[in-house]
Specification:
The complex is a heterodimer of chains A (108) and B (162). By secondary structure, chain A is mostly helical. Chain A has one domain (15-97). Chain A is built from 2 helices and no strands. Chain A has helices spanning 15-53, 58-107. In chain A, helix 1 (15-53) packs antiparallel against helix 2. Chain B has helices at 7-43, 50-91, 99-130, 137-142, 144-154, 157-161; strands at residues 4-6, 96-98. Chain B is mainly alpha-helical and 162 residues long. Chain B has 6 helices and 2 strands. Chain B has 2 domains: 4-94; 98-161. Classes of the chains: A mainly alpha (108), B mainly alpha (162). Chain A binds chain B through residues 1, 7-12, 21, 24, 28, 31-32, 35, 38-39, 42-43, 45-46, 48-50, 52-54, 57-59, 63, 66-67, 69-70, 73-74, 77, 80-81, 84, 88, 91-92, and chain B through 93-98, 100-102, 104-105, 107-109, 111-112, 115-116, 119, 122-123, 125-126, 128-130, 132-134, 137, 140-141, 144, 147-148, 150-151, 154-155, 157-158.
């Protein structure tokens, strides 16, 4: 994820590398947000159709319960993933700060 | 508007059709038996005269083949009913099925599966990019792959219904 290679983070060392890595991580966070939203929308559509089928039907109830479980699971996954990505951003920033401190120390 | 299947209606249809077929067969049997008796009487000379000869001709040329043809028709409908009953047994337990609603659920499920597959691929690409450069991040991102796989496989149930 340096400026030269969009497929790889390479060594996250220069300012540009750090900016690229952070940009990629944010983009990935956005993807997860979009995924979560789209999954929710489709679950809503599924639920609306279930209402049309009749929610007193045992099989409709069963499918609905399973679908809501998947939706909740996706919510948890998205939340966990958001945490991983937030920690990654912190780690990148920490590494960049350490690098800068090292550089300044070296110059002094 | 799409098809609507109702197990209760289907049960009524099967019962009514089976009853009608039984009645039709019984009528055919009675007609056949009467026709045979009449033909026997005509051939045995119990009934004679030009009018009876004409009746014998009508019996052998028209009525007997029509009874046979009607029996064949009933047999075809019986086979159809047996096939319907067999297919019906696969969906009867679901009660009511509505094509439009099930199609919408199927579309939502497929869309969720595709979204999940795409995210899994992107997640793997990001994890691969992180390998080496960001220790631990690649593994952390990759750990979600099997969970996304599970999410994707959870939505397959409805496709079995369609």
């Amino acid at each position: 994820m340096n400026g030269r290679d969009g497929e790889s983070y390479g060594q996250v060392s220069s300012e540009q590398d750090v900016a690229d890595a952070l940009s990629h991580i944010r983009r990935h966070e956005e993807r997860w947000d979009e995924y979560r939203r789209a999954m929710r929308d489709h679950t809503s559509r599924f639920e609306e159709a279930a209402t049309g089928l009749g929610t007193t039907n045992y099989f409709v109830q069963k499918e609905l319960a399973a679908r809501r479980e998947v939706d909740a699971y996706v919510g948890r996954l998205a939340s966990e993933q958001s945490e991983v990505l937030t920690q990654t951003v912190r780690a990148i920033n920490r590494a960049a700060d350490a690098e800068r401190s090292g550089d300044e120390g070296g110059r002094a | 508007m799409g098809l609507v299947y109702d197990a209760a209606d289907s049960d009524k249809l099967k019962t009514a059709l089976a009853g009608n077929l039984t009645t039709a067969l019984s009528v055919l049997e009675a007609t056949d038996s009467a026709a045979r008796r009449l033909a026997g009487a005509l051939r045995g000379g119990e009934l004679s005269g030009r009018g009876y000869s004409a009746a014998e001709l009508v019996l052998s040329r028209d009525i007997a083949p029509q009874i046979a043809a009607a029996r064949d028709e009933v047999a075809v409908i019986e086979k159809d009913l047996a096939r319907f009953t067999h297919e019906d047994s696969k969906v009867n337990r679901f009660g009511v099925l509505k094509e439009d609603e099930l199609t919408r659920q199927l579309a939502a499920t497929r869309a969720q599966r595709d979204l999940t597959e795409r995210l899994k691929e992107m997640n793997e690409a990001v994890a691969a990019a992180a390998d080496g450069a960001l220790p631990g991040v690649g593994e952390a991102l990759r750990a979600v792959g099997p969970q996304l796989e599970l999410t994707s496989s959870q939505g397959i149930g409805i496709t079995k219904l369609s």
